[in-house]
Amino acid sequence: MNSKPELVGAFEAKTTLGSLLERVGRGVSFVITKHDRPVAKLIGYEDDKAARREEAAAAVRTLRKRYHLKGASIRRLRDEGRS
Prior knowledge:
Elements: E1 6-9, H1 10-15, H2 17-25, E2 30-34, E3 37-42, H3 49-66, H4 74-82
Parallel strand pairs: 1-2
Antiparallel strand pairs: 2-3
């Protein structure tokens, strides 16, 4: 339900926050205004695990370019650390 956000005044948002959150959970978004000027946007939370995984993988790839094992085996280093 990605329609145009509804406008809601700051006072109304404060007094009806619970019901606004319920509607946000159903896909509605709101722009909160103060003196008829937009000051905030209330939208649903989406946990984008795939994006976070890709960011972590990119960070690992960057580290791999910076650090080298110089012929050492990862298994040997792991086992060495366990003893």
